[in-house]
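Justification of resources, computational component.

The compute hours requested in this renewal are based largely on the per-chain cost of generating structure records like the one below. Each record pairs the submitted sequence with a full structure-token output. That output is archived, and it is also reused by downstream analysis tasks.
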Amino acid sequence: MGKMNRFFKVILFTTYLFLLISNPVVAASNTPNFLSYHIQTPTESDDFFSQKKSKTISKQTINEIKKSQILILIVVVFFVSGFLFLIYHIKKTKIINNQLASYAKENEFLISETNHRVNNNLQLISILISESLRKKQNDANKIEFEKLLSKVETIASLHRHLYLTKNKDKVELKEYLLEVKNNFNSIVTEKDLTITFTLDSVNINPDDAMYLGLMITELIINSVKYAFTSSQKKKINLQVQWDKIKQEITFNYQDNGESSKGKEIRPILVLQLGQQLAVNPILNSNRGFCLTFTKKIEI
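The structure output for this chain reads:
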């Protein structure tokens, strides 16, 4: 409201200045000297009609001058008003943009803090599970705790990744899945297992990244638990290829397990995660266990 008041005051002041300048011209045009300039003093030789015509022309000239002044005033007021409105609009837009930038920065900070706190809470849960796992003597119970611990660490890795990156809307899949792979370092050493990840770089949304991370975690756990015999070389290979033209990834997981039990297992959780990803995994157990699918990615 205060800006609008200043806006109208400037218009009124401009109008006043124009009238102040233009009034002397109008006043001068009404003086005898001005009239004498345009209206020659009739001589005795001039006839009556010539005098009348001259006076009429002079009055028309004065009226035209006044009309021109009014028109100029209107044009000046119009342009001044437009200019002031433009300045007001620019300032208002700048204020709004600054507010939006402030809100965006605040929102980014809140999201970052949320990811940081979730990561800390999940790390605490991991510590508690690890402590319980250390106390367990029963191998069956230990395996279940190891599965739970791996899944918690997979989710924690995602939130840690989101906290450390500037872009909170996308996750660099290669970096994240390598973090998931690192969660199995102790199992790799203990079970004499070779895990190979071949990954293309692509940015995907955090939800899809989490489902993929959990799917890989579950697949590795199932392979370790069911697929291998004690005497064989244990290998797991994962490939995620990005097709830029088709805008899709091709996911291929495979182990070289020789155990018949591993071939009979149907990974229910993996299939449920596939539904969340809106994909239809293809399973093949002719040579070990293999799972493949393709998924469209929105860039």
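The radius of gyration is 42 Å. The CA atoms of residues 215 and 270 lie 5 Å apart.
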